[in-house]
Amino acid sequence: METESLLGKTIDDIKKIVVSATGQEEHAIEIAKWIYRKGASTFDEMNTIPLALRKKLDKVFSIGKYNPIQVCESKDKTRKYLYKNQSGQQFESVYMPSPKRNTLCISTQSGCRMGCAFCLTGKIGFKGNLLAMDILNQYLSIHERKKINRIVIMGMGEPFDNFNEVKNAVKILTAEWGAAFGASNITLSTVGLHESLREFLEKPFCNLAVSLNNPFSDERKSLMPIESTNPIAEAVNFIKQKPLKKPLRVSFEYVALSGVNTYKRHAIAIAQMLSGINYHLNIIPWNGHEKSSFKPPSDIELNAFIDCLNQEGILTAVRQSRGQDIGAACGQMAGESKNLKEKRVGD
Fold first, then answer.
1. Strand partners of residue 162
2. 265 to 92, 235, 328: CA distances (angstroms)
3. pLDDT tens digits for the chain (347 residues)?
4. Which of 130, 145, 281, 303 could share a disulfide with 134, CB 3.0–4.6 Å?
5. Could you say which of 116, 206, 308, 330 is catalytic?
């Protein structure tokens, strides 16, 4: 008999299930912590829950965790995990260790329908939204989970195109009864879909990173078709009207493309557009892939652009690319099994 998964369910959902099985609400809270904080895979592990209740639940429900189907490790120790869920959707997550930050980049969709010209995920098309359980499983299913102190929702897909599932997943991650992960240590990246952005800004649940990439509407349209229906200028105005309150913060992302968006006029226009917002600009030199002819800027071109940004008073950082040799860097994720050096799950 096929069982229903508890992974992805809120505390209210779990309470209803537990009470219907003659358990107590405090048992539901404990079960949620076993799943989301302790990473339990079976009811047998939940030794603080009455055995009779565990047996009842085990007949109808499962935890719902599942392992990746492929794990690849980069020469810089970045690990890319490929998953396939029960619906057959494939998607990836990336673990990036460093001395101070151990970051997990997670996906929210299989593929993407935004069609950004520089992004490989957009080239493979849209295969479907992930459920909250699929989003959470990327965090709970890897053995590095306890080392992770940053989560970036910047993998495959547009989070605001799957807003409700993403919101539920983040609420579970940050809840006291859930993973108890700090909201200020989670960052969601978006192209700026207006409807979901407005809803997010009413009740923000993590940091926000907006994919800018070009301050000029006509030029941005050629890179990001979504500009035609969701202009970045309007998205920026929404943020100005509803600024994030500390400790949450907003940043803007800028994929630097040689000869395309790295001129002084771009720096001036960025400063004018974002004036009045307390923000940070992350520069991401384009990570190459076989389905696009863009080129990353040379060091000279990139440094000249950064100098222009600094002259405009823009706080700027260049994001270090990780996992390029295994297709794990920003814009390279394709959700496909590849003939790469693999690591066994648990290594």
1. none
2. 36, 21, 32
3. 578 999 999 999 999 999 999 999 999 999 999 999 999 999 999 999 999 999 999 999 999 999 999 999 989 889 999 999 999 999 999 999 999 999 999 999 999 999 999 998 878 889 999 999 999 999 999 999 999 999 999 999 999 999 999 999 999 999 999 999 999 999 999 999 999 999 999 999 999 999 999 999 999 999 999 999 999 999 999 999 999 999 999 999 999 999 999 999 999 999 999 999 999 999 999 887 666 789 999 999 999 999 999 999 999 999 877 666 666 556 555 655 554 444 444 44
4. 130
5. 330
Q: Counting Cβ atoms within 10 Å, is residue 216 exposed (0-12), middle (13-18) or buried (19+)?
A: middle
Query: What architecture does CATH give domain 70-326?
Result: Alpha-Beta Barrel (3.20)
- One-letter amino acid for residue 122 of the chain: G
Of the listed 30, 72, 73, 92, which one is catalytic?
A: 92
- 11-20 and 25-36 helices, crossing angle to 10°: 130
Level-2 CATH architecture, domain 4-62? Orthogonal Bundle (1.10)
What does R_g of the chain's alpha carbons equal in angstroms?
21
Domain locations along the chain? 4-62, 70-326
- Is 92 known to be catalytic? yes
For the stretch 237-275, what's the b/e string if a residue is b when 16 or more beta carbons lie within 10 angstroms of its beta carbon?
eebeeebbeeebbbbbbbbbbeebbbeeebbebbbebbe
- Kind plus residue range of the DSSP H or E element containing 171: helix 163-174
Cα 8 to Cα 19: distance, rounded to the nearest angstrom: 18
| Residue 301 is a catalytic residue | no
Look-up of token digits 């993590």: 206
What's phi and psi for 83, nearest 5 deg?
A: -115, 155
